[in-house]
Amino acid sequence: MKHIFFLALVIALALSGCNNAPDSTATQTNWGHTVKVADVIQTTNYTYLEVAENGSKYWMAIPKSDIAIGKVVYYNSGLPMTNFESKELKRTFDKVLFVQVISDDPAGDGQMAKMTPAVSQPANMSSEERVASNKSGGEKKKIEVDPLPGGMTLADVINKRSALAGKEITVKGVVTKYNAGIMNRNWLHIQDGTETGGYFDMTITTNDEAKVGDIVVFKGTLNVNKDFGAGYTYEYIIEDATLQKEM
Q1: Hey, CA dihedral for 201, 202, 205, 207, is it positive or negative?
Q2: Cα–Cα distance between 12 and 171 in angstroms, integer?
Q3: Which of 69, 78, 72, 62 is nearest to 108 (CA)?
Q4: Of the chain's two ends, which shows fewer C-beta atoms within 10 Å, N or C?
């Protein structure tokens, strides 16, 4: 009888241990967001996805990929763009999240999935969609701007960017691109007609307003190798700039 009782106790403990064991079928994810694709719009270089997450829907954009409606994908972070106009689609999105790295594997190691191309900034990307690049102001314009007295041209700043990193500088140029209200700041690109090593464009973030075609003078801090996350980096950028009266 003692042997029978002991055997029953062992079986009970074993069953109890099985009930408390982790569910081997439970999904383990290394990603912060799990979304289901509700709609897909393809463009030349980007795929726009309307996705559902926790009962709400929003738009995100990824490098051009073949993804079907109903697909579940995973990602960690992205760069939000408000009032984003895609000229190719002839459509303005109230908000779209640009995401560089996604996965179709919830337990993936953070590498870009096969459905996403390895090149994050194609050379032929349309100018309105090349979000983070020092050449994203578009093609070089035929611009002639009188330089600031005793100041530097954009080519001078770019050439000396390592020595000027972290310092407050003043630049002058013509606004060639302007996007308002992205990450609580306005983003613009200026050119002054100078060029070095193929670089002719300066990106500036500011709380002040301007419009394409304006000749502007901005004073702000030059930063190099600035990483905003989600794969969006700038070799150089002037941040927290203020619009100045021409000197």
Answers
A1: negative
A2: 78
A3: 72
A4: N
Beta strands, E only, 76-167 = 79-86, 91-98, 102-103
Q: Dihedrals φ, ψ of 46, to 5°?
A: -125, 150
Count of C-beta atoms within a 10 Å radius of residue 4: 8
30-87 pLDDT, tens digit per residue, is: 788 999 999 999 988 789 999 999 999 999 998 888 899 999 999 988 888 878 888 8
Beta carbons of 37 and 67 less than 8 angstroms apart: yes
Amino acid at 218: F
In the listed set 103, 134, 163, which residue is the last one of a domain according to the structure? 103
Q: Is residue 65 part of a domain?
A: yes
Asked if residue 23 belongs to a domain, the reply is no
What CATH number does residue 78 fall under? 2.40.50
Per residue in 185-237, pLDDT (tens digit) is 888 999 999 999 889 999 999 999 999 999 999 999 999 988 876 556 788 99
Question: Which has the closest alpha carbon to 112: 74, 148, 139, 147?
Answer: 74
Q: pTM to 2 decimals?
A: 0.54
Measure the N-to-C terminal CA separation of the chain; round to a whole number of Å: 102
Up-side HSE of residue 165: CA atoms within 13 Å toward CB? 10
